[in-house]
Structure formats: structure tokens, C-alpha cells
Automatic annotation (TrEMBL):
Top-rank taxon: Bacteria
Keyword Transferase on entry: yes
Record family assignment: Belongs to the class-III pyridoxal-phosphate-dependent aminotransferase family.
Alphabetized UniProt keyword annotations: Aminotransferase, Pyridoxal phosphate, Transferase
Pfam families for this protein: Aminotran_3 (PF00202)
InterPro entries: Aminotrans_3, Aminotrans_3_PPA_site, PyrdxlP-dep_Trfase, PyrdxlP-dep_Trfase_major, PyrdxlP-dep_Trfase_small
Cofactor requirement: pyridoxal 5'-phosphate
One term of GO molecular function: pyridoxal phosphate binding
Protein name: Aspartate aminotransferase family protein
Coiled-coil ranges per UniProt: none
Species this protein is from: Paenibacillus contaminans
Amino acid sequence: MGVSKSQQWAERSLRSIPWGSSTCSKAPSFLPEEPGVIVRGKGCRVWDADGKEYIDYRNGLGPVTLGYGYPAVDEAIREQLANGIVFGHPHTLECEVAELACELIPCAEQARFLKTGGEALAAAIRIARHYTGRDHIVQVGYNGWVNALAAGSATLPGQKAQSVPGVPAAVSALHHASAWNDIGQLERLFEQYDGQIAALIVAADYEHIGAGKTFYPAIRALTEKHGALLVYDEIVTGFRIAIGGVQQYFGVNPDLAVFSKGIANGMPLSVYAGRKEVMKACDVGGTVISSTFGGEMLSLAAAKASMTIYKEQDVVGHLWKQGERMWGGLNRIFAEKEIPMKMAGLWPCPTFVAEPGAKADLKERFFRLAYRHGVSLYNVSYVNYSHGDQDIDETLERLQGVCEQLQKEMEAE
């Protein structure tokens, strides 16, 4: 059997692109079962270069919340395309989408736009430093490659490094990594750098996100006590577990928040927003944060359409309902077939977790078999608004076969 077109593309990409992709997490690691490239998507399904169809739960690593080729969003993009992509002055969409963001995000009194979540968090860090006059930053979770600066920080989702290549030691010394739901560690950091911490930036731990019920109030009190800003990384949680993310779900507002995935159904856009008093730090005369493409209109048109759909239809309710149908169903299959793995966390953004005692390669073997059966998964997997009951049932039927095969392999070992 020859090498597939999809795999040929993966090998060709490696010759001209480090990692074989500009996004590390998109580079295929489970070839030949995993598609080397995807060339088309519709609804909740994607196709590789060989025409093989996959029911997709990667959703562009999270941004595709409504579905591939969602008609209302695509129509908004086409309509704006006919009128221009970017101008030398602001467009009305920039104001309209900022107003929508301030309406839908609890902490937002003002908002501005960039293209990626990582750079928006970098903007929030600069705002915090200017606003407080302090230099040190404490970070929980993965906040994007731009901000993976501390020793022991997450350099990629789920991957930590004691030192970050390419980051000067003097810069790294101003950034401090802390664990999710470890208020004791945070208190020690705030005592060690008393009066020097500008901001605490928090991205939820998807496996243990339920701990946010007590953790978010605790860090709100901690930052207020020490005069630091509280910043939420809502890049995954925003427009998913609630329209307004964890701040709406848990009822604890930060000073600043960053949203990106989910806000424009796959178009590149990020929002950094917060209290007007704090956002004033990047106003005229403050720290300069500026990007030619911050107000690019195709993404803003997609965001306006997407956010309007979120307002008018129960998108989040669908993500919870279908998430429970999909991931709860998969957990039942795992239990039935005695596969030591589970989906943990909240239904709109759960993560695969191997049970204690499971072999190190269990997750890889499961993923390879899933790809072979036409199901595309990721460590944090999502349903989108286009996943219907039939799609979920078909997926579970395919994964039933995957688990039966994996069970047989495990019994034969």
C-alpha cells in the first residue's frame, strides 16, 4: 500500500516549515493514522487530502464553535468582503463588536482587538505593568507561547519546561508559574514578591475546573489584598462553558480578561477587555498597544454574526447537552470495555485522562484507532453547534468499535 496523499503533504511540509506547521499543536504526531492535512470542513466533519471523512472534535483546536461553513457567519464575511477588508481608519464594525463584547462579558467596560489570544494576553500584561507600576507576573496554566516565560511554565498545553529556550534569564525572572487551585503556593509568591506583582493571570485547568468554585473567589481576594490585577485567560472557556466564560459561570469578575477561540467561529480575532479604569492604561498617553490588523473587518463581521447567534440561540446550552451526550457516552464505553481512561472536566471542554496504572501509550493507541475509524480527537475535545444527535450517535458507534479492538489488544498482552 502506497503512502497516502495526506501523509505526502505532511512530509513535504516538513521540508519548508519547522514542525511541519506554523501551529505546533496542529502538526500530526500519530501518522499514518492521523490525517497529515485537512483540506475541507462542513458542519462537524472534515476531509483530508485523500477524501477520507472524519467526525471532528478538534474544531480548529477550539475556535470553530458553531461549525465549519456556518451559513450566517460565512454570509457576513462575504458581505463585508465586497466592501473591503481593512482601511486606514476605524470601521463601524470595530465599535459594534466592542459594544457587543461589553454587553456579553461581565468584566468588560471597554474592549480592544488583536488577532490571537497569546498577543492579547501580552497586551494585558503590559496594561497591568503600566497600571500598577510593577514588573512581576504570576501565571497559572498555559497562556500562549508569547507569555510562556517562567521557569516551570507551560510551554505548550500540558507541556512544562524548567527553562524556555530563547527567553533571557532576566526576563524569565520576572515571570512565575503557579499551579491551578494551589492558593498556598500563590500566597507564598505574593509574600516573596510583596508589592512587586502586577498581575495574576489564570487559565483554568480543564480536568479540575470545578475547583474554580472556591479558587476564583480566593484569588480575587488575594489580588485585591496585594494590589495586583486579576486577569482571566478565557481563550478556551469564553463562549463555551458560558457566553461570558468562567467569570459568568463562577460569578467572580477579574480586572481584565482575554477571549479569542469561539468569538468568531474560526476567523482570527482576540479581545482584551476589562474595567474602564484599567483599560485607560492603554488609552492615549498610556502604554502603546497597536496593530494594523486589530480592526480587520472580515474577522469582526464574523464575530458580530457569531456573537449575535450566541445571544439569540442557546448555543452554550447545546454545547453542554451534546457534550454530555458525547463524552458521557464515551465514559460509559470506557467503563464497559474496562479501558482505564476517562473524560474529565466540564462537558463543553473536557480532557482525556488516563487512569492510574494505565500504560503510558494508552492514549496514543486510542487516538490512532479513533483516526482509523474516522473520528478526529484532541487532548481537549469539543462538540460544536453543528454536532447533532445523529453525529454523536455515529461517533459513539465508531468509538465502541475502537474500544472493543483496544480491549482485545490489551487482553492479548
